[in-house]
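Sequence decides. Consider this:

===
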Amino acid sequence: MSELNMKDLVSLCKRKGFIFQSSEIYGGINGFWDYGPYGVELKNAIKKFWWDEMVRLRDDVVGQDASIIMHPKVWEASGHVEGFNDPMVDCKECKSRFREDQLKNKEKCDKCGGELTEPKMFNLMLSTQIGASEDSSSTAYLRPETAQSIFTNFKTIQKTSRKKIPFGIAQIGKAFRNEITPRNFTFRSREFEQMEMQYFVDPESETDHYEYWSETRRNFFEKVGIPKEKIRFHEHGDELAHYASKARDIEVEFPFGWQEVEGIHDRGSFDLTQHETFSKEDMKYFDEATKRKFIPHVVETSIGADRLALAILCCAYHVEDLTKEGGKQDLRTVMRFKAHIAPVQVAVLPLIKKLSDEAKEVEILLKKYGFRTEFDTAGQIGRRYRRQDEIGTPFCVTYDFDTRDDHQVTIRFRDSMEQKRVAISDLASYIQGLIVEEM
């Protein structure tokens, strides 16, 4: 396989309805992307798997879904109003705008070599107005992260869920940042989705929760189809955020280099202390076993759903040369998604249209078992196989004339292209077993 060219992936995402630019008929809007039929299924499957791993399969984590707009003082307490800034410079010649810390040459424009302006700090929060009047008192912000609502809701959720420390609160939700230079497809956008979990611990606990969650989260990446050799930790040193005492990123190797997809931070008691100070509400936890009252420390895991989806797309993309000696060039584009997150898990293909009604019953059966399915009758069976390869469908089920007599269908496997006859009565359990085995 040759090196992945991002242009090829972007083209496939548009052509197959994974991801394309928002408001495209009006020329698009930079930093905003829409997920099409296959893209939304992929992203939803990723989010569901994350939620299952982080919440449903654990007894020590609960969930929430908080509002996007919060009281403006939340962002004063968190430090975002004062400190959520990036250094911005403009080129005096071509008028391009850059983040100063991302320039290859701090003295000249990366595009035209022109002179740059002095850097100025640019706040990344997107503001909006609440209510009928537009003045400073009505200014609010679209949240730049989902973590703060977990801290402000900590006491309420702890009491209502009756959880004892250590325990976590998880959330999936949209966040917004007014990025100076969105780039690399969906990697850096102005609207994105985060999957975050804040784990509240006793500061005197002997358990190293930071290391535990670091390794747990690293393993998650392999489960969704990121090869081990494309995953690494990046330890934060001098570049620690103001709220963190320890931090490391889980980076993935993209075609444009190693990039952060998830952050694990030891936030200490910074956030709950800040919100206690600004709100005057008691954020302390009473430990009945030790009769101590304290502000919990927090270990955070924060992953970008869009970045993870892009990483999975990059790792899944393969072009194979199936050309036979002396024959016409035959290239197969195949998305090697893990079966449990594939947008379509099973495609049902009647050999000819005449068999559609009977084949449709097979698809209805698979839908009842919860599989994501597609029914395709257009074109020769070989072409339909290739179409499913391009969207990453791991299993194609063909209903043929023999099926009427033996009540068996042919399963064609995406990666090996091998085929196997399976009884319709065993089909759902057989496919489910293959999916579970791969996980």
Notes: The chain is about 30% helix and 30% strand. The chain has a mean pLDDT of 92. The chain has two domains: 6-74+143-313, 344-438.
